[in-house]
Amino acid sequence: MASETTSPVSVVIDANVVIALCSKEPDKLANAEAKMMEYASEGCNFYAPGVIIAECLYVLCRKLNDGVLTPAEHSSAVLGFITLMAAINPPPMGDKSLVKRAEEILGTFGCSRSADGIYLALAAELNAAASTELVTFDAGMPNQAAGSNLPKPVVVLPTV
Fold it and tell me: Which superfamily does 10-156 belong to?
């Protein structure tokens, strides 16, 4: 949870939070819902880069193929994803504005962390205009964020 007493104006939502909400992941759902409700009650604006669509659809498909979700649960998760995306804004300057910064943030991290750099680049871009947080379940993201010049830490939600 954030240690500051002031609320962020903007929140970048990592795909793993959206997936937890849409697929109702038992170890993450309660914490994701609580944090998103907190942000919503504070009037925060939600953002995500375009890569969130591919990431979420891929994971939801894998959950279906692996038997984690039934076909009905998968359909419900996809519909929930569509509904949730209506409340999430795209990058104000477009995804192309994030590429250079994402590569800088990637630094010595491996290719598997390149999508994280896009979320961090968006948070950095938004933070130039207003207080911004990035919310995730990825405990490794704060290490990658250390080089992104965000004045607030990445908010890592706990799993149950």
Answer: 5'-nuclease (3.40.50.1010)
